[in-house]
Design brief:
The structure is a single chain. The chain is of the alpha/beta class and 260 residues long. It is built from 9 helices and 11 strands. It has an 8-stranded parallel sheet with strand order 5-3-2-6-9-10-1-11. A 3-stranded antiparallel sheet has the order 4-8-7, with helices on one face. Helix 7 links the parallel strand 9 and strand 10. The chain is globular. 2-phosphoglycolic acid binds next to loops.
């Protein structure tokens, strides 16, 4: 595990974008796993700048979403397909057919989940997965208690996750109750993972995920077992980490150390 602690979300986005570019540079048709939520926004903004400068190429990039709500009308502004089209695919010049999002429109979300898992395999697997983390330690919509062996499947959303996402909907009751999410085993199959967290409200989850026991009660803790995990944190998200403990098994680059 390599952990970068940076001064603010923009610095997190800048370094993560630089290292994502480097990771994908030698791959002819790279497959990037993309997360929704507020956290990756600066990463996508910096990737967009790097594309405009001509260093980051997306002409053969394929992107796979982590998850999608079940039950929103096609084209709903808060569906993750719409969110990723606006915030990722359009600025980065990735056409709709190269942006893959679980689609439940066939009215059979379980079959759609299996089909999505196959789509990822047929694409050759994910080269690099971008991940955020929930305050309860979820990754994708893999809530506490999710099986570490889980594949893409239909997942009910917990009340805490629905409450956290209510800010995007007119009424809290409008937040869907079901999702399709890549499973924890699906995520762990990615060849590299970039976990991103910013803000003090993620500090407890980050501490438990990176330095606590690997336990299904903290889904993100499984990432400790990934051979190529890179973590990007701002000072607030890193504020509850025991860096001395972390440094016994991880490489830590902390801007506060460098500034001393
Ligand atoms: P956020 O969501 O980036 O909007 O905080 C992250 C998550 O819940 O996975």
């Amino acid at each position: 595990m390599i952990v970068h602690v940076l001064p603010d979300p923009d610095a997190v986005g800048s370094l993560a974008a630089r290292l994502i570019e480097a990771e994908l540079l030698d791959i002819a048709a790279p497959v990037l796993g993309v997360a929704t939520g507020s956290t990756p926004e600066p990463v996508y903004a910096h990737l967009t700048r790097r594309r405009e400068r001509g260093t980051f190429r997306t002409d053969r990039l394929r992107a796979f979403a982590l998850d999608e709500y079940v039950g929103l009308a096609a084209g709903h502004a808060e569906s993750y397909r719409s969110v990723l089209e606006r915030g990722f695919a359009a600025p980065l010049g990735v056409p709709a057919e190269r942006l893959h999002v679980p689609s439940w429109e066939a009215d059979d979300p379980a079959a759609a989940s299996d089909a999505y898992e196959r789509e990822i395999l047929l694409a050759g697997g994910i080269d690099l997965q971008v991940l955020g983390i929930g305050r309860n330690g979820h990754i994708g919509f893999n809530e506490p208690g999710s099986d570490f062996r889980s594949l893409t499947r239909v997942v009910p959303l917990t009340e805490s996750t629905r409450a956290a996402n209510a800010r995007f909907f007119e009424e809290p009751a409008d937040v869907p109750t079901l999702s399709i999410s890549q499973g924890l085993a699906t995520i762990m199959r990615a060849r590299a993972i970039a976990l991103i967290a910013t803000g003090a409200d993620k500090a407890d989850a980050i501490r438990a995920a990176l330095t606590g026991p690997v336990d299904t009660g903290m889904p993100a803790s499984i990432l400790q077992r990934h051979p190529r995990l890179r973590v990007f944190l701002d000072g607030a998200a890193a504020s509850r980490l025991d860096l001395t403990l972390l440094a016994t098994f991880a490489v830590v680059h902390d801007w506060r150390e460098a500034a001393r």
